[in-house]
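User: Can you predict the 3D structure for this chain?
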Amino acid sequence: MTTSPSSRTYETEDGEPPESPLPASPSAAAAIRTPTAVAAGPAVFGVGADRVDLWLVHRPDGAVADSLARTELDARERTRANAFVRRSDGLLYTAAHVALRRLIGCYTATRPEEVRFTREPCPTCGEAHGRPAVAPTPPPLHFSLSHSGDLALVGVAARPIGVDVEKLPGAETVDLCSRALHPDERAELAAAPAGEERARLFARIWTRKEAYLKGLGTGLRRSPAEDYLGADAARHPAGWTVLDTPCDAGHAASTAVYGAAPAMARVRRVPGAWLLAE
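Assistant: Here is the predicted structure, written as structure tokens:
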């Protein structure tokens, strides 16, 4: 089954993602991460076959950037965060991974620093570089993470999911990367007016494609030209639902979930205060 890429399934307010119901202070955040508090809030931190939860994380600045809960990350995450050339990229990576750990902690009643990640087998070669997963995997929980520009996106569902967010590209990037698209996607792109409209179309196509490939577990090891994810939804890959996802100006985002379209996909923001060290 394939569903038209749209945002009609999403719970939004005035076309913008609603504010997160997460607590706004570190002390309250600590309380909600306890098993009792998590169990008491299934409406926020629960998974179901007909539900997808999506969380927007903004690149922090000021006092929030200086006080992120970095100690909750593992050694590999901290090493990678410190390896970014641009401090802004390292801050977004850190915020995204703190948010991911705290969110998964809420869904699984686990302290963030105790969350362990693994990789599922690649569907192509069988090696352990497929979809990221929680170890040991609590059934049923699937997640996906993406970050670009000033924004990160976390998706959580009871079935395989992939998400992608991209900062809108410049004309040079569009010209270069469009060569990797499906031939019919390239034709659609060439027919769009040059400039911002073409950049937005490219970003929509590319985020759909990356979300789908991440959901499959292959990522870009599978050629981006192999699958069509352009305007004709009837030609999208069978067995998956791919939806354009509401996000902030200057970015595009998409979500891919295995099977039929969910009855509800909620988009929420993670407040910066929820990412602070305690």
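The helical segments are 26-32, 35-39, 62-66, 75-83, 87-108, 171-177, 183-191, 196-216. Residues 177 and 202 are 9 Å apart (CA to CA).
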